[in-house]
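From the pipeline queue, job 12 of 40. The input is one protein chain; the requested action is below.

Action: predict structure.
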Amino acid sequence: VIDDSDAAESGRSGEHGGGAVYPQLRLENAPGAAQQEVVLTQPVRKAVFPVAGVGTGSLPATKVMPKEMLPIVDKPLIQYALEEAMEAGIEEFVLITGRGKNLIEDHFDHAYELEAILAERGKLAELEAIEGMTPDPGRMLYTRQRRPRGLGHAVWCARELIAGEPFAVVLPDDLILAAPGCLKQMVDVYK
């Protein structure tokens, strides 16, 4: 049972410390059973990746390439961010893109020609690497921020795709190497 009766009166839903709002599920016993209440917090299944910025802080490198596609060793920043989200148990990935960000979409799409060449040449490790970086079909969603109006507006652009669920905001240009990943640590604290 989703219980938001207290939230309707107070304008909040399951408020925890720090003013953050988390939807909650409230389980109730069958009629006549001892009154016991268990509150389960909805899991964080979705992440928003605001990648619509123009990258002025990284010019001239970002003049023709999105900053999220800048390589760190052998992977672009956005791939590190997606892998960190997957490690944290995120199932749906919402990318807020903008003008000139097609490379990001192409990076996570199938490259049939490249896959065929790798298979033909017996480069199975490389083939597995590019196949493994793509989420299952229907798990990666894209929407556009028409004008760069800041981070808050970019997250707001995802409102219909989030549909009232708890979600993470992942900033791909912040690379934090940790084991377990930073997002997994935060999700574990949320649980």
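Job complete. The two ends are 19 Å apart (CA to CA).
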